[in-house]
């Protein structure tokens, strides 16, 4: 594949169809600027600021834009909040739609057939494979991203974090917790 | 199309392979493939729905063993040829046709931040009044188009409840095939797991975003 991609890039550059510097800029964006730290910032703000949380739940696209995030694969955002009664899990069964603007590029498992096929029919079994047991008393909501709406899970704020700064809280918010296959880290667990 | 890409609800595709400290790209070519797809898209010879349809049109056995970026680059090569940006000969030889004019790339490095930051919203203003409201019970149609659709097989001919109206969005079933955006109302629809799968373990529901043409009143 490396050779095939290299040959295609050379051809497109030689024909003037793509600018190699633009390719570098695209890669730099997803390597250094757009990633799950964006989403963690959003979640930590929602945990710290009740008015922001309300705006995020009412219009996630606008609330996320307040923090400076948006654009490609985050044009239309919906935030779904975990509670003691409800746990949310995000998937795209038809391809690999994912909220790039807040989580960056998706991990391989998210794009893989096993996850895409089973998340909708056996969400509890899938979450168990990630080491997450969700009790039968909790309603599991699976969000299959079939349109251009992208979903961000707001995990539950861990106990023992009262008075924490937004920055410290963001350190507890993993990518996986914003997809729904993990909980936010407990304060005592290693980051 | 009823392809292998429409895999929601299937069993037997293996365990989920988790990787600790997964790198953003596993090989440098993956990063180049991502960037090539985005940069070539700036020619606007296709839209995101057409790209998805090209990827899902990769023959099933190949689709299942290809990685994500392999699918992207395989589909891109076909898109370039079919839309006339590159000839089949050029693709095979890797060199431009003798005497062909050199184009000017539509996306420069300087434009990348703004282009990625604006994205491609699919909401549209239409005069079309939505047929359904939040709380309405709908039944999804039992459609089996050979072209692109975003109504997965597992959610066809099932009863759900509208939980949110998203306004009008570009309709992928036409947009993927050069038949125009034809925007129409898009709804968030909740299906109880029991409705989709029969006996369900614990309480669960699946939510999908579905266009009006996929739905009938139940």
Features:
heterodimer; A: 191 residues; alpha/beta; Nitrile Hydratase, Chain A; 2 domains; two-stranded parallel sheet; 11 helices; 46% helix; globular; B: 218 residues; alpha+beta; Cyclin A, domain 1; SH3 type barrels; 6-stranded antiparallel beta sheet; 8 helices
Summarize the topology:
The complex is a heterodimer of chains A (191) and B (218).
Chain A: H1 2-14, H2 20-33, H3 36-48, H4 50-58, H5 60-66, E1 76-81, E2 86-91, H6 100-103, H7 108-111, H8 113-118, H9 123-129, E3 139-144, E4 149-154, H10 166-170, H11 175-179
Parallel strand pairs in A: 1-4, 2-3
Chain B: H1 28-41, H2 48-56, H3 60-65, H4 68-82, H5 88-93, H6 112-118, E1 123-124, E2 137-140, E3 159-169, H7 172-175, E4 184-192, H8 193-197, E5 204-211, E6 215-217
Antiparallel strand pairs in B: 1-3, 2-3, 2-6, 3-4, 4-5
Please outline what is shown here:
The complex is a heterodimer of chains A (191) and B (218). Chain A has 191 residues and is an alpha/beta fold. Helix content of chain A is 46%, strand content 13%.
Return the string of H and E elements of chain B. HHHHHHEEEHEHEE
Strand portion of chain B, in percent?
Answer: 15-25%
User: Which residues of chain A form runs of ≥5 with pLDDT under 50?
Assistant: none
Provide the low-confidence segments of chain B as ranges: none
The chain pair forming the largest interface, with residue counts per chain, is: A-B, 81 and 95 residues
Quote the beta fraction of chain A: 5-15%
Q: Give the overall pLDDT of chain B as a whole number.
A: 96
Instruction: Supply the number of helical segments of chain A.
Output: 11
Q: What does the main sheet of chain A amount to?
A: 2 strands, parallel
Could you say how many structural domains of chain A there are in total? 2
Rg measurement of chain A, Å: 18 Å
Mean pLDDT rating of chain A = 96
Which CATH architecture of the largest domain in chain A is right?
Alpha-Beta Complex
- What name is given to the CATH topology of the largest domain in chain B? SH3 type barrels
**What fraction, in percent, of the residue positions of chain A are helical?**
40-55%
In terms of quaternary structure, the protein is: heterodimer
Which series of helices and strands of chain A comes N to C? HHHHHEEHHHHEEHH
Distance between the termini of chain B: 25 Å
Structural class of chain B: alpha+beta
**Structural class determined from secondary elements of chain A:** alpha/beta
Counting structural domains of chain B, the number is: 2
């Amino acid at each position: 594949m490396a050779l095939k991609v290299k040959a295609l890039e050379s051809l497109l550059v030689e024909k003037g169809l793509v600018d190699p510097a633009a390719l570098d800029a695209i890669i730099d964006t997803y390597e250094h600027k757009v990633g799950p730290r964006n989403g963690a910032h959003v979640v930590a703000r929602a945990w710290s600021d009740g008015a922001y949380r309300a705006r995020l739940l009412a219009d996630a696209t606008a609330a996320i834009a307040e923090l400076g995030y948006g654009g490609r694969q985050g044009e239309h955002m919906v935030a779904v909040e975990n509670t003691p009664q409800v746990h949310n899990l995000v998937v795209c069964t038809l391809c690999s739609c994912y909220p790039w603007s807040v989580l960056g590029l998706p991990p391989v498992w998210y794009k893989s057939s096993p996850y895409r096929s089973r998340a909708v029919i056996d969400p509890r079994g899938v979450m168990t494979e990630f080491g997450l047991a969700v009790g039968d008393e909790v309603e599991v909501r699976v969000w299959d991203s079939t349109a251009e709406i992208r979903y961000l899970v707001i995990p539950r704020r861990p106990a023992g974090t009262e008075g924490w700064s937004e920055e410290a809280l963001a350190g507890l918010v993993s990518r996986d917790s914003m997809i729904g296959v993990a909980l936010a880290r407990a304060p005592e667990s290693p980051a | 199309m009823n392809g292998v890409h429409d895999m929601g609800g299937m069993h037997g595709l293996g365990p989920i392979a988790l990787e600790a400290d997964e790198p953003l790209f596993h090989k440098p070519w993956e990063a180049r493939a991502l960037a090539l797809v985005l940069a070539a898209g700036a020619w606007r010879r296709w839209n995101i729905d057409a790209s998805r349809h090209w990827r899902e049109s990769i023959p099933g056995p190949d689709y299942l063993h290809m990685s994500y970026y392999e699918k992207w680059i395989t589909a891109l090569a076909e898109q370039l040829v079919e839309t006339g940006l590159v000839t089949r000969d050029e693709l095979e030889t890797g060199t431009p046709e003798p005497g062909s004019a050199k184009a000017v790339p539509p996306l420069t490095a300087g434009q990348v931040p703004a282009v990625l930051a604006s994205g491609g919203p699919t909401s549209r203003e239409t005069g079309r009044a939505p047929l359904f409201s939040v709380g309405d019970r709908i039944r999804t149609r039992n459609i089996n188009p050979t072209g692109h659709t975003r109504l997965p097989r597992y959610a066809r001919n099932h009863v759900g409840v509208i939980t949110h109206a998203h306004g009008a969005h570009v309709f992928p079933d036409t947009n993927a095939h050069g038949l125009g955006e034809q925007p129409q109302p898009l709804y968030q629809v909740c299906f109880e797991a029991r409705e989709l799968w029969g006996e369900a373990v614990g309480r669960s529901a699946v939510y999908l975003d579905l266009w009006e043409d996929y739905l009938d009143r139940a």
